[in-house]
Amino acid sequence: MKTTFKEENNNFVMYFEGRLDTAAAPQVEQEMKPLHDCTGHDVILDCTQLEYISSSGLRLFLSLLKEAKPKGSHVYITGMNDDLRQVFAMTGFINLFEFK
User: Fold this and answer.
1) Residues 8-66: pLDDT tens digits?
2) Which of 18, 21, 90, 96 could form a disulfide with 54 if both were Cys (CB 3.0 to 4.6 A apart)?
């Protein structure tokens, strides 16, 4: 699992590549820490290269969303493939996040 953090157009962007499974979740959680300091910035989670997400990965996304909303920030997900979209639909997460 590889992540890349960038600040682009006053947004915090995290690129995910590979499989966000239970084994990768602790490392990804650490790499996502800068996103939690998002006051004044929207967050974009780019899942174009994300092949799989487990419940542990979903928990990381939800935790970020819960922290961002009170700060007035939006969390957008972009680049989801059909398999990821199906996971988000089955878990109800499709109704929680904004998609680009």
Assistant:
1) 999 999 999 999 999 999 999 999 999 999 999 999 999 999 999 999 999 999 999 99
2) 21
Please list the helix, strand and coil fractions of the chain in percent, rounded to the nearest 5, in that order: 40, 35, 25
Asked if residue 58 lies in contact with residue 21, where contact means CB atoms within 8 angstroms, the answer is no
Burial of 82 (0-12, 13-18, 19+ CB in 10 A): exposed
The answer to whether 74 and 98 have CB atoms below 8 angstroms apart is yes
* Residue pair 88/80 in contact by the 8 Å Cβ criterion: yes
Q: Which amino acid, one-letter code, is at 84?
A: L
Q: Distances from the Cα of 34 to the Cαs of 13, 28, 71, 89, in angstroms?
A: 10, 11, 14, 27
- Give the DSSP H/E element, type plus range, for residue 57: helix 55-68
How far the first Cα of the chain sits from its last, in Å, is 23
